[in-house]
């Protein structure tokens, strides 16, 4: 958000509400996610999104995994020192 948006919050909210009234159609509905608790909002949205995708079981033939070839001397270079933080450890 920029500083100007703070003073125009009501105008932006009215414009959003008006846009949703005119663009919410059966073929392309808008969904609103209660987002006071961001973690719950994300989980609810993922669950809802997945529930809208038709699912049917797909039968697949068994997968045959070939034997791994012998090593030809590959050595992994040192890891880059900019890892992604493990936020899941605290969940």
What does this structure look like?
The protein has three helices and no strands. By secondary structure, it is mostly helical. The protein is flat and about 65 Å long. The mean pLDDT is 90. The longest helix is centred in the N-terminal third of the chain and has 15 residues.
Keywords:
single chain, 91 residues, mainly alpha, 3 helices, 37% helix, 0% strand, flat, PPK2-related, transferase
How large, in whole angstroms, is the Cα Rg? 24 Å
Class by alpha and beta content:
mainly alpha
Low-confidence stretches: none
Shape: flat
Sheet-strand content, in percent, reads: under 5%
Helical content class: 25-40%
Rounded mean pLDDT score: 90
Span of the ends, CA to CA: 28 Å
Order of helices and strands: HHH
Q: Give the total of beta strands.
A: 0
Number of helices: 3
Main β-sheet description: none
Structural topology:
Blueprint: H1 3-7, H2 9-23, H3 38-51
Domain Polyphosphate kinase-2-related: 1-60
Region (Disordered): 64-91
Biased composition (Basic and acidic residues): 64-73
Give me a quick take on this structure:
With 91 residues, the chain is mostly helical.
